[in-house]
Each structure stands twice: as C-alpha cells, then as structure tokens.
Amino acid sequence: MPLLRVVFRLQYLTVFVEEMRPRDHDATHLVKAVKGRPLNPRQYSNVSIDGKTIPIRDGNKERALEWFAEWAVPIVDSHAKGRKVLIPIPSSKTVAASPDDFRTALIARAIAEKCTSSVVVAPILRWSKTMPSASEEGGSRDPRVLYPNLLLISGIPSGACILIDDVTTSGGHLIAAAWKLADVKREVSLAICCGCTTHEQLDDPFSVPDMTLDISR
Known about the structure:
Blueprint: E1 3-12, H1 22-35, E2 45-49, E3 52-56, H2 63-77, E4 84-88, H3 103-114, E5 119-121, E6 125-127, H4 143-146, E7 150-152, E8 160-168, H5 172-182, E9 188-197, E10 211-214
Parallel strand pairs: 1-9, 4-5, 4-8, 8-9
Antiparallel strand pairs: 1-10, 2-3, 6-7
C-alpha cells in the first residue's frame, strides 16, 4: 500500500474555539501570512529568521515565507538521496495558461533557496479549469473529483518528488496530485504543508502530528 507522509508547521484554526490562546492567534496569523492573505493590522507574531527575531505584520508578511522555509529545509534536505523536486499544489484558479508565480510555487522556491542539498522547483501541476475553493466556495476535497481536473503541463525533472501546499484539511488535493504523478511512473512519499486545518484545539498549535495518507487507487 503506497503511503504519503504529510508534515505540518502548525495548526490552522479556521473556526474560533471557545478560548483562543495567544499561540492559537499566532498560528492563525502566520499561516495567513504564508498564504499571502491580509492580516489584522493590529496583530503581529514574532518569529525567528536567520537567528533574528522578526515581528510579522501585514506590511512584511512575505517574510513569513522565509520563516516557514527555515523549518522545512531540514525535512527536504534529509529526504532521500540525490536531487529533490518540489512540486507545488496549484491554487484553485491556477489553470494551464497561468504563470508559475502562484502562491505555493513561491513557497516552494523560498524553501529551495535555503536548502543545502540539490533541490529544484517544478510547478508543473495545473487545473484544467478554475476550481471552486474548498474553504471559501464549497469546492470538493474528494480526490476522485479533483484528479480528473489536474493536468501535468510538462515533464518532471529527475529526483525524489515532494509535494508542497500551504494548507491541508483532509489531504484530498495531495492524494489527487500523487495519483497524477503516478500516471507518469513517479512516486511521492512526502508532502510538506504550512497549516493543518483542524477544528479541535491542540495543546501546542506549533506541534502538529504527521498525517499518513493512503494513496493507493
């Protein structure tokens, strides 16, 4: 049974729980920054980037990509031998004709720039049509619905494939992407995501258990 290990930087509480703690607010703030979403102008979260404490606000939210990348780099560098290929999951509006500067591609590049091993970014997944967002427009998270709408727009460079996404809930988009790679005989056993969307408050929102997905068909 082929399995996909999914690792997360933090919990993303999209529905406020009864007693939100400061670290819950920080986690939600930071995943929004990584996603490029507007931030509460009155809120900031301190993070460590290159050994310096940086307050992440709306005005400098792009620096959250560096912060996330620093966390992800050891995971990428230690995965498999030889070159790694980071494959970003396309945003819901990223179609075949879209440029390769969609958000998860920028996240993947931020990670690759900090890696010490040989890493390339391959933004080769696209949707055949604009898809309704699962979080905002009620779009599907079912991989059997998503998979027929995924396209590979070019070949995949040699190396161990790693999927990159900003936020994952059930893992449906990751499973669909793994199936699409399997169509061209490429295996993937690791995915790296910034946020895990959960509605149950964790003891530590910055310590999220890995998710294991069954990617067999």
